[in-house]
Design goal:
- The chain has a two-stranded antiparallel ribbon.
- The chain has 16 helices and two strands.
- The chain is mainly α and 356 residues long.
Length: 356
């Protein structure tokens, strides 16, 4: 993405990478225990989706994803813990790992369904679950993951579990509404930028906000701090979506695991695309004409160029930075000494500076 340097070359990037690795190590055992309880066919699809098994059920050493959302749960819990006992995961309050696993299950429920809706055939560098096991099994396994996420919280004895369960339930409904709007936009010739921003906030920001709020709840934080952490995650989530949309156009397939210009091929109304389409420029009109019909390889390259010439790429990058500024303001409401929230800041910086 232009001249932006990879986040892993910075101290913040190194801290974020360490946080993500620790989150994966802490949460994966809880996830495996939850998935092991699924009936055989669903368990097989789920274990394949997470990269832990091949399609034939033999062990695999695949990737279960970056663990951004569970890392946010744990980082928020560390930042706001209020004198309770520390758990085994590097100073995390007791029970927060279970909440982090619940958020990760909810996230992966959406991924399984998104791959079906978008007809994506690759994720994390290999075939998507639906393309291997079929549409019914992928959809049903996604449903089961959503139920597992809520069961983890419902069966938890932690005093925050009821509030956490209610918040995650509301979040799932909101992100489903965001996904529905995203699909509806593809059928509409005109979508406003405000509509697109609201969709992205629901589809992506809601779950990142929920992750941060659950961490705060499990740390014993009060209502004002919980809401501030939710707002922080939502703003950071919108910045995340802006960067993700840029990668959907200009990302390296070797790193994203998806074809170059995948969002353009699908004629998605992503944020940089809508910014270009509503720019009132000749390039925006050219993009609209390209979006009106099927696109081959040359058309995809022309569409990407039109988005850039219409200002969509620059707008998305600038708006991501603006949203991150708002996120930090929200975080300071809950943690006035931002030095205590270094993990949250490092993770937020990671999602808005990543280049792949």
């Amino acid at each position: 993405m232009g001249t932006t340097e990879a986040i892993t070359t910075t101290s913040e990037g190194q801290e974020a990478a360490a946080l993500l690795e620790r989150a994966r190590e802490a949460v994966d055992p809880e996830l495996r225990r939850a998935l092991e309880g699924l009936p055989g066919p669903m368990r097989r699809v789920a274990m394949y989706h997470f990269g832990w098994e091949h399609a034939d059920g033999t062990p695999a050493a695949g990737s279960a994803g970056k663990a951004i959302r569970p890392a946010l749960v744990l980082a928020a819990a560390r930042a706001l813990r209020s004198g309770g006992g520390d758990g085994p995961a590097g100073g995390v309050p007791d029970g927060a790992v279970r909440a982090a696993a619940a958020v990760e299950l909810a996230h992966n429920f959406t991924l399984l369904h998104d791959d079906v809706i978008d007809e994506d055939v690759t994720r994390r560098g290999r075939a998507t679950a639906w393309s291997v096991f079929g549409l019914p099994d992928a959809v049903i396994t996604g449903d089961a993951m959503a139920a597992l996420a809520l069961r983890l919280l419902a069966e938890d004895a932690h005093p925050a579990s009821a509030a956490a369960s209610a918040r995650l339930t509301s979040c799932v409904i909101e992100l489903c509404a965001g996904q529905q709007a995203d699909c509806a936009f593809e059928q509409r010739p005109h979508v406003s930028l405000d509509e697109c921003l609201a969709m992205a906030t629901a589809k992506t920001g809601a779950l990142l906000g929920c992750a941060c709020a659950l961490g705060a709840l499990y740390a014993g934080a009060g209502p004002e701090e919980v809401e501030a952490l939710d707002a922080f995650g939502r703003e950071a989530g919108l910045a995340f979506q802006l960067i993700d949309d840029l990668l959907g156009i200009w990302g390296d397939p070797g790193h994203t695991g998806k074809p170059a210009g995948a969002d353009l091929i699908a004629r998605k109304k992503s944020l940089p695309v809508v910014a270009a389409l509503t720019s009132g420029t000749a390039a925006g009109e050219e993009l609209a004409a390209l979006y009106a019909g099927p696109m081959d390889g040359d058309d995809v390259r022309r569409a990407a160029d039109a988005v850039e010439r219409a200002g969509g790429r620059d707008w998305a990058q600038a708006h991501a930075a603006d949203r991150m500024g708002r996120a930090v303001q929200q975080l300071s409401r809950a943690v006035p000494d931002l030095g205590a929230a270094g993990g949250l800041l490092a993770l937020a910086e990671f999602v808005t500076r990543r280049t792949r």
